[in-house]
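fyi for ur records
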Amino acid sequence: MKRVLSVFGFIVVFSLIAVVVEDVMACAEIHIRKTSTVNVSARNFDFFTAGDGVVRFSPAGMAWQAQFAPQNCEPLKWTSKYASVAFNLTVAKTKSPAEGEYEAGVDGINQAGLKVGTYFLASTVFPESEAKTSIDIGTLMKYLLDNFKSVDEAIADLSGSTYRITSTPTGLVDIKLHLFLHDVSGASAIVEFIDGKITVTRNPEVPVLTNSTYGESVERLKLYDGFGGNQVIPGTVDSYDRFVRGAYYWKNLSAPENPTQGVNYGFASIQLLTESPGFSHGGTRWTIVTDLDNRKVFFRTLNNPAIASVDLNKLCATLNESTCIEILRTDLAGDISDMFLKNVKKTRP
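which gave:
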């Protein structure tokens, strides 16, 4: 009887996951750059499980490769040019190159000041390619952080790539993403894979991203008060509604006077787009705010509301190996940069 219930439970959970993936993987970002002295990205990571993951520091000069490659393809390989700190979701592999643990890139910044965030987009269709070298979308953030110092460099590589980009099949979900990139010059770009083509929106006028294509979100925005329409600003967790709400609060946000205030404004703004864990499909697990100019990242999690921070400049000066801290630890608060030395977990060779 227990075995029957176990199988039934698996079917229910699997069906629920399928619904979640298609409808409400509710991550969101608001980019705040209203003055030349503040350059802050604020984002939520929403998921339907606890959100196990790590904050990983990686130095320059390390060899890496894509974590998944389809049949008849070789995983893209590279040696990192830049150090970075990244927030990675930990999930189970189900396919090539081997079974085991997989770290899917969620958000990160490198020492040159290139920042990359990833957001679920169910309608993603990757370009068809005859290339024999590939990189999965869950590893793409790591590749960009390791190799490029600016939005322009990253876009040039993606647009002229000789490698194939694929989804990432895991034990939970087939990962499909769009990306939001920023750098210290103030440049930004949204990268999406629509109808088998790479679509790039440079310096988006409304610097918000949720889980619908950017073009569709902007069109929907025109229906609302303050953006050309007369509808009241919505309050649901629907992707379009969160985009409209984020645009509304960004538009009405006063300009921060300094980076510290910018970080505070980032937490306040993105809080308005969080999703309660009471919803059956999940909720906000992590909140991450990045001060690009100073290479500092601030974060909190659902079960640990204390704000912790990581100083990438400090890590670059003290570490020469890849180390990480489990993000769901409940003792993280304040500057935890020194904890990377005490909580070393070497990366895969």
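Residues 2-342 form a domain with the Penicillin V Acylase; Chain A fold (CATH 3.60.60.10). thats all i got for now
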